[in-house]
């Protein structure tokens, strides 16, 4: 499938690359893997709990990397485009910020979600916490190897750095607390591998969908996480929005307008830092220099008039 997908992408580059300059290899591969091969909610509808999602994701990552290299070696010089991937990721906040287990559980939530795909693409391998937790539970279940597939050294080198920009689809946030699940083979799944529970704050604004609460500050924290974890990559927000709360017979978008306003304001706080740095490092010294020069010219003018 990796080679088939590469052939398809190569055809797209050939036919449309003179006009299309931004390419997303996969959109929301988390949903493809988990809902297609773990829960069976989406096509192809398989319920391979504890194995299917990891295997599907493994090949999605390898397919993405192969397509990036194909574009880089065959098309980039003449077409001048960029190739990235779009990952979904909700933010996980510790229920108790003074509880180390809750802090670690919240970190796992994000790493098992966005980090599952982003960390191999930016750093060459799966998040260490995924390797540790899935590997340990696999051993406890009597398996000879981890249910999480492994990349060879050559694959790690090949995959690392295959991202010209990162697309992010973000909608909501969860409070996260530690929860230990049994390690029996019959109970193994992507969700129990994480050893955590997801909670919501009843004070959060009522959602239009039962899963989608408006938590704008989580968006900023996710962006900061990406910035620090993956070297401040170029980011495009490829998905964000909210469903309407009520059935409308005419336009009633106040809830959606407020959601967008709050989330965009949180997003804009990050560039503000760089703008302030620019003011401090460029504008202020320039203004000071000009002020000194103008003062010197004015002083020379006064001295000449006195003479």
Automatic annotation (TrEMBL):
PROSITE patterns: GLYCOSYL_HYDROL_F1_1 (PS00572). SUPFAM superfamilies: (Trans)glycosidases. One of its GO terms (biological process) is carbohydrate metabolic process. Keywords: Membrane, Transmembrane, Transmembrane helix. It comes from the Eukaryota. GO terms for molecular function: hydrolase activity, hydrolyzing O-glycosyl compounds. InterPro entries: GH (IPR017853), Glyco_hydro_1 (IPR001360), Glyco_hydro_1_AS (IPR018120). The active site is at 239 (nucleophile). The chain crosses the membrane at residues 282-303. Belongs to the glycosyl hydrolase 1 family. This is Lactase-like b isoform X2. It comes from Lates calcarifer (Barramundi). The gene is lctlb.
């Amino acid at each position: 499938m990796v080679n088939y997908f590469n052939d398809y992408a190569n055809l797209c580059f050939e036919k449309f690359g003179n006009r299309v300059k931004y390419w997303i290899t996969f959109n929301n591969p988390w949903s493809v893997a988990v809902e297609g091969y773990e829960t069976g909610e989406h096509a192809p509808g398989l319920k391979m709990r504890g194995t299917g999602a990891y295997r599907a994701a493994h090949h999605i990552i390898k397919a993405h990397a192969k397509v990036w290299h194909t574009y880089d070696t065959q098309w980039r010089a003449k077409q001048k485009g960029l190739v990235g991937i779009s990952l979904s990721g909700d933010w996980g906040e510790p229920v108790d910020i003074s509880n180390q287990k809750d802090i670690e559980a919240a970190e796992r939530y994000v790493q098992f979600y966005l980090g599952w795909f982003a960390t191999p693409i930016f750093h060459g391998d799966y998040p260490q916490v995924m390797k540790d937790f899935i590997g340990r539970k696999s051993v406890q279940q009597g398996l000879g190897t981890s249910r999480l597939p492994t990349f060879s050294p050559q694959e790690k080198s090949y995959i690392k750095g295959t991202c010209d920009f990162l697309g992010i689809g973000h909608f909501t946030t969860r409070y996260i607390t530690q929860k230990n699940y049994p390690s029996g083979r019959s109970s193994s799944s992507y969700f129990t591998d994480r050893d955590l529970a997801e909670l919501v704050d009843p004070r959060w604004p009522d959602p239009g969908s039962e899963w989608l609460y408006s938590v704008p500050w989580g968006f900023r924290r996710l962006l900061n996480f990406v910035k620090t974890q993956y070297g401040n990559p170029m980011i495009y927000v490829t998905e964000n929005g909210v469903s309407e709360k009520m059935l409308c017979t005419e336009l009633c978008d106040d809830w959606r307008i407020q959601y967008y306003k709050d989330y965009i304001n949180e997003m804009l706080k990050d560039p503000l830092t760089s703008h302030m740095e620019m003011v401090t490092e460029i504008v202020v010294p320039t203004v000071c220099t000009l002020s000194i020069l103008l003062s010197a010219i004015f002083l020379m003018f006064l001295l000449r008039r006195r003479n």
